[in-house]
Design a protein that fits this description.
alpha/beta; 5-stranded mixed beta sheet; 10 strands; 15% strand
């Protein structure tokens, strides 16, 4: 019986800019979207507002840069906007280890402080006020099930993880700038594409799957990036896919991790070099040769959350049109 290893490469905390730099960067990005003729006037206004905002937030205690990690955690524990501390700690740990380093994270100020204490750079954090229904400038948002209902319904329909229960449940969601209707249309197309690609991989004579793995492929439960990686590896090697895993807690999100084994260790090493040489979005967050509990050597490949939509849709459309 094949057993999945729980090994994960250690990661080191990233350096983080000051909140002043965050404000400056936000202003810069906002101005770049405006016509050139208006930038100088807008810049003067926004810089003045930025100075006032930073001063107010420092006095109110929202920015806790002067405190050490322990102080930031204590500050976060003081006000949770109805978030249970145990669920908050689980959510923070999951986001820090699973969400892409390239993703901006929208969060309540208390959650932003907790994430920063966990090592998430301040430059990736976008404060969101509880109850806000405004479109967030982030790819991922962390809200409570009750206070974040309007935001979830309008701009963050994709639940990728949740922690706790009831109205105080903490939800981690992927945003969709086009709104909920655009997301659901893209999600349906992406699910169909994943099912089609999974069925094709099951017919690939260079790949072997366990019965649970085959069922997951046919159901479209496997991340598009894993499907594309398997297709690329099978063009040069023969592998057994021992498991798909790493589904998010409290959400029906695609599996983002797989473990594969082969008869030759040299093939695993070559496959590892191949996946590490990929560019985004096909570059895994973690990839390493591991030893399973059975003593067998295997290759573990894991992609970061959230799972992107549309990677396979265009490819399958071209294939259908070419028939």
């Amino acid at each position: 019986m094949w057993v999945r290893s729980n090994h994960r490469p250690a990661t080191s905390p990233l350096s983080e800019p000051s909140w002043g730099q965050v404000v400056a960067t936000t202003v810069k990005l906002w101005l770049l979207r405006r016509p050139t003729a208006r930038r100088w006037l807008l810049a003067a206004v926004f810089l003045a507002l930025a100075v006032v905002a930073v001063a107010v937030l420092q006095v109110s205690g929202v920015f806790v840069r002067t405190a050490g990690p322990a102080g930031r955690v204590r500050a976060a524990a003081g006000t949770g906007h109805g978030m249970p501390l145990a669920a908050q700690a689980e959510a923070v740990a999951w986001i820090a280890s699973q969400v892409s380093n390239a993703a901006m994270v929208g969060c309540y100020p208390v959650m932003c402080a907790a994430l920063q204490a966990q090592g998430v750079p301040a430059g990736r954090l976008v404060p969101v006020q509880p109850g806000s229904a405004d479109q967030p400038r982030a790819q991922v948002v962390v809200t409570s099930a009750s206070a974040g209902r309007q935001l979830a319904d309008r701009y963050a329909p994709a639940l990728i993880a949740s922690f706790g229960s009831g109205g105080s449940r903490i939800e981690v969601r992927a945003t969709e700038p086009g709104g909920a209707a655009a997301y659901w249309a893209a999600q349906r197309a992406d699910l169909a594409a994943r099912k089609s690609a999974g069925a094709q991989l099951l017919r690939n004579r260079h790949l072997l799957f366990t019965p649970p793995g085959a069922a997951q492929l046919l159901a479209g439960q496997v991340d598009s990036r894993l499907l594309a990686t398997l297709a690329a590896l099978s063009s040069q090697y023969q592998f057994r896919v021992t498991a798909f895993s790493d589904a998010a807690p409290g959400a029906q999100a695609p599996f983002r991790q797989m473990t594969i084994s082969g008869d030759r260790t040299t093939d695993l090493a070559a496959a590892l070099a191949m996946v590490r040489a990929q560019n985004s979005p096909y570059l895994p967050a973690h990839a390493a040769i591991i030893r399973l509990d059975t003593g067998q050597t295997a290759l573990s490949i894991e992609f970061a959350a959230p799972s992107p939509l549309g990677l396979l849709t265009a490819v399958l459309t071209v294939q259908r049109e070419g028939k």
